[in-house]
Amino acid sequence: MSDAIIPALPRPAPPRRLGHAGFWLAAAAAAAILILALRGMGSEYAYFAATFVLQYVVLATAWNILGGYAGYVNFGAAAFFAAGAYTTVAVGKAFGLGLLPCIGIAAMVGGALGLGTGILTLRLRGAYFAIATLCLSVVLQTFIVNWSYVGGSRGAYILRPRDVPFGFDSYGGYLCAVVLVLAAAAIAIARSIEVSRLGLGLAALRDDEAAAEAAGVPTLRLKLIATSISGAMMAVAGAPLPYLGSYIEPTSAFGLSYAVNAIAMPLIGGTASWAGPLIGAVLLSSLQQAATVTISSAANLLIVGVVLVVFVCVAPRGIIGLFRRRR
Amino acid sequence: MEGLSRRGLGHAALAAAITVPAMAKAQTAASGPPIRIGYSMSLSGGLAGNGRPALLAHRIWAEDVNAKGGLLGRPVQLVHYDDQSTGAQVPGIYTKLIDVDKVDLVISGYATAIIAPAMPVVMQRQMAFVSLFGTGVNADFKYDRYFSINPAGSQVKETFAKGFFDIAMAMDPKPRSIALVNLDSDFHQRTAESARFLAKEHKLRVVYDRAYPPSTVDFSPIIRSVQAARPDIVFVGSYPPDTAGMLRAASELRANFALFGGPMIGPHITAQKLQLGPILNNLVVWDVYAPEPTLQFPGTQALIERYQPLAAKENTDALGHYVPPLAYAQMQVLEQAVKRVGRIDQAALAADMHANSFDTVIGPLRFDALGEWAEERNLYTQYQGIQGNGIEQFRKAGTQVILYPPRYKSGDLRTPYTAGA
Amino acid sequence: MSDVVLRAHAVGKRFGGFTALSGIDLEVRAGERLGLIGPNGSGKSTFTNCLAGAFPSHDGSFTFKDAPLAGLKPHQRARQGLARTFQLPRPFRGLTVAENVRVPLSFGGRGAATMESAMACLESVDLAGKAHRMPKELTQVELRRLELARATALQPELLIVDEAMAGLSHTEVDQILALLFRLNEGGTTIIMIEHVMRAVTEFSQRLAVLVAGRKIADGPPADVLALPAVEEAYLGR
Amino acid sequence: MDPDLALLLNGVVSGLLLGGLYAAAAAGLSISFGMLDVVNIAHPAFMVLGALIVALLWAATGLDPLLLSILLAPAFWALGAGLYVIYHHFFERRGDEAIQGLAFFFGVMFIVEVGLVLAVGPEQHFVDAAYAATTWRLGEIDVPLRMLVPATVALAAIGALALFLRHSFTGRAIAAVAQDRDALRLLAIDPIRIKRLAFGISLAFAGLAGGALVVVQPVDAWSGHVFIGRVFAIVIMGGLSSLGGCVLAALAFGVVENVTASFFGPSWSPAVAFGCLLLVLAVRPQGLFGRMA
Question: ipTM of the predicted structure?
Fold first, then answer.
């Protein structure tokens, strides 16, 4: 890792991007405004909707590190997401830890799972990798279903603590703030990778693995780093889930809609840059949340599918690509 | 195809629109702002097959109430959103219902996976909550304003399979061995646990005890292994797609057991009744309702008669013997409590529900401290004399006779089960 | 350190039942310009791939700068100073020309990956003006130059140029040749695999000939080309 | 007969029958994924589409479901050809098939499933074939026609397809696409036309498999999910472009599943089956029955 995230060179391309300090200021300001706005609304539903959206921001950003930067399509995003959620359940039950330490442990579990997946499957390319991750999802779900400590197929209950930490007005508000911080961190990590040597190496191996090797890129190691980081972040995205719903069971935790969304959001936003998954996740998940409480029928599942198909056909570089002509 | 898809779209539009009360029909006109009842319902996804009939029963109830002048003189209005059978959608739906739509009352959608995620939201707002087909939801939450419409009661382990074993032990000769097969799911783990417990009580030898995964396609290996273990009786816990596969395999493998059945959810759904036909003969099935003369309460027949034409129009479960009576009863409990209390006061409503008993289309009900039924009512029924695959025979009494509990008994056990042979 | 930079000993490679390469012995001295020729399918590319590490297993062994290469992955060989170009240019299509060069600069482990060094690298192949273009905007000859730039960015001791001239015009071949001569003067040993005979004979100090997976000749170009076996292999096709 | 032996024999026979169903489901994919390199993850969804259309037509006409699925084949062929035109236009031509193409079919799968729910509802649909209630007894061994007839029809169709691929000019051209696209150009055959044709055939087989599926079990819009992992596993184990390998792998998969379920309990059968796939991927990426690439 140490040599992986070396601060990047100044870009040769016309530098329209912000400097690091500027980026952080903007991110912090955006986060603060969001929290204040939500608080101003004073509605628990606003918190919930925001948490829902932000959770997808983390998931989509995490997926994009492997899928977008390295070009390895992971169909098993739901498995990592559920691994994070079930880490919260297991760790919470075993050690009585709260949400924050659980998120940390989920990151480790997800990272280890990502590394294991990488070692098992990264010699496979393209579709084979995608299918192997799909199988991994099945295997992991079977494991959870048979693990009675975390509720097995019965599911598990996680009761929200009665007292709300740090002076938040409700636990929903606290949860929302936590996920907001996670989303900001995810974007920061993605952005750092993108402008770092690691990002350059991943982009090279995405385009041509053999040529990247010939140029001195240790492709296998970079892929393992990418699967680990991506896996850790996806697990982090799932870690707050049990607190969001208070109940979790394998069928919905491993639901196909997480896998679809994790793929659809970056592709719709644009996979080449950190902003793509962010835009895609915000757009698609708020659309879905809005559809759930307005048109409220099976048709709103159709949204993801149709938007995904239309975008990959008409705008293969995503929304970002529509605005940036290059790359 | 065209007609069907148009009907589908019509249905979607219908689900989309908030069900507006038929105020014009009201005799003694209900007036004032409507009493809004909010909930999430699975209209798509895996639970929709039961979610849609439940919604239909709710709408019938709303029409009934509004036709009689509403509740507390106000019309009732149902506000529901589709949760796509996904628990993760549910907290959002209930926060939206309570915070944004400002509904007056909430109830639950269909089944544990949808009820449980709603609990924290409902508990935080301290609202009374009548649920539908949840098992053991309140065991962890211990929420004193939770009430469950599910005949299983709170002592699932001790009582759920009791009827099956009582029937079995009354047979002559007495069975000595049993095989247990169950789907690996929440509900069926509990049912199998009860069967295991009672098998031990009755000193029955368990010769086969295996769970199968939801992705199973071919059930013949399971049936064959059960046959190889030579049990006298077989207790099976399964869900619709598997029940059909299991019974077809039993039929193909010339199954012959003195007693075969259990909570095999499947023939509860009309389409499966019709498909399986004579294979169901002598199958002993756990159920919540059967159209037998011993199980008629005020309103039951009227509900079924109102339901069936509507169901035909909306293309959902044709007979409506499984979920609709319970869904209607769910609303009746709420209705009667509100009427007694005389205002929308969540604490008073909950106190009333704990204190009183309710007369519903599925009979008199009373709740215990956890909100489960004070007296469980697990029905064990047997399909008898089915010929062919026609629907009419299932509307009549005598096709699905009640064997247990004794107070509703409407027929005698026939043995053995030969899967239609 | 001896002046032999690369030594191949009894290198062979089989695909299933087909022997693509067998018993190749070859020594390359530091600073040498070696031409490796042979008809299509004679095993030249297989040899390159074995040497660069693209095939994890083969018979025989390579010694590079007095150390065995066995077990080293392609990127490790690249970092040791063993660079190659690909027969068909394989640019990183999603990266700009300058970023293409920054990849070996960043990962080659030799020198700093600064913008200046990237530009210097591009200048050496006359691509500085197109540093911010995407590869798809380049012409065929520019792509070959980019391929060379990427290889030279590794500052290799040994560079294997795999058919860089195919399909190029006379002047374009001259441009590339000039570039290779310049590199060689800077101390880089070059193995040129080529079908364009004018380029090989003009460039090489020594020629090795592969036919059907075996080396049939090795020596000064004039001598080698005069051998009847070589003539037969080429003309008898 | 020794009861254990009978159990084993029956496990093998029922596994072979189940394998026949899997072969039907996987054969089309072995063309699209194995030969054309089009990762059609929506293949099982199209199979379910076929199953539900067959169920509706059966309810309307009472014709044999397998016959109906064969009658549907031209429609599915046309659907497949149309889908390939879209896929080629937007992805293959641009060289974007890797990620965008995968996502495209993922989206298509979602659209098909939700479309089915909107059109026919979330309930299960079934058919009653005339032979479904009959079981042949061969000594201790039971052969239910509910499984045997669909398996036989599917294998016959696959056999016909194999003959077509081997002996007709177009068939050989399809096989050639799998090997080398440039070779076709030399023969003045338009590879796009050939691939369109082949993809149509692959979807026609999805429709046929749907007919087989709905005879075997009731079907709802999501029934395809169970098959996604299985059919890809089978095609990969079968060595991608080999139809014979695909059939052998399907039969092996069925037998492994059912024998495991008979002796070690059903909860282990998916794990064993997918364990086999992971092992194959790790040890022999070219598949059990595949030739060296």
Answer: 0.81
